[in-house]
Amino acid sequence: MRAPGIVHHGTRRRRAAFRRAAWSGAEVLVTVGVVLLLLVVHQLWWTNRQAQHNAERKVQALEREWGTPASGSDSPDASASSGTGVTGGGEADAGKTDAGETGTGGAGRRSSSGAGVNSGQAQPRWSQAYAVLSIPRLSLRVPVAEGVSKPDVLNKGYVGHYKGTQQPGQAGNFALAGHRNTHGEPFRFLPRLRRGDTITVETRAAVYTYTVDRTLAQTSPRDGGVIRPVPRSTVRPSYGYSEPGYYITLTTCTPEYTSRYRMAVWGKLTAMRPR
């Protein structure tokens, strides 16, 4: 018969092993929690800071390359005096040019009619930053680069130009994409844009002013209609346009912190002036 209150060595060893296992498990959980916290901080804070700094430096570099930065909105009178013919809603001579033109062909045709839009501007190289997008309502000023590659363009804090869509000032659709969260998140506050807000695109050759016209709050990531030359959603056909024009499209993920859907903001070219 065992004496009461006596603990054998085997029981002690089991208890000690249990305590060590519990302590080790707690250490593992704490370590995993710290690693996950660091990953979140890196993704939500450090990538933003790094990308925003990178984008600001690129904007400054482009401005130095072009000379004195062209700031401020363009007036319709200035646009008219330059011979663009784009003074009201950008639709005055839209029907004179094929909306399906790509590359620099549309610019060449329009230049021959006296507009001078994009004249002499070379086609940008893949991932090359070649323009500056400014949106006063969002206090945004960010580089525009060719292509929508994440590592080469979007993750640098840039806005990317969809290959195959038109360039600034050309007939058709100048379509752009940008991150809404992380990596500079230039389009985080895109839903704040309202009809009548201005969007400015500066290039080496000219400054183009677009005016926000319509918004598609949510659609499928595969809705390619929103970036067609005449933009119209294929998922929600009541959103978009039915006539050729001079359009800009801004796209990003929605809702925040997911990539389940896309949103699009459309605008029309309303002014242009050469540098």
Could you give the topology of this structure?
Elements: H1 9-66, H2 76-81, H3 105-112, E1 129-135, E2 140-146, E3 159-161, E4 172-177, E5 198-202, E6 206-219, E7 246-254, E8 261-274
Parallel strand pairs: 2-3, 4-7
Antiparallel strand pairs: 1-2, 1-5, 3-4, 5-6, 6-8, 7-8
Could you walk me through the main structural features you see in this protein, from its secondary elements to its overall organization?
The chain has one domain (44-274): Beta Barrel (Sortase, Chain: A), CATH 2.40.260.10. The radius of gyration is 27 Å and the shape is elongated. The protein has an eight-stranded mixed beta barrel with strand order 1-2-3-4-7-8-6-5. Helix content is 26%, strand content 24%. The protein is α+β, with helices and mostly antiparallel strands and 275 residues long.
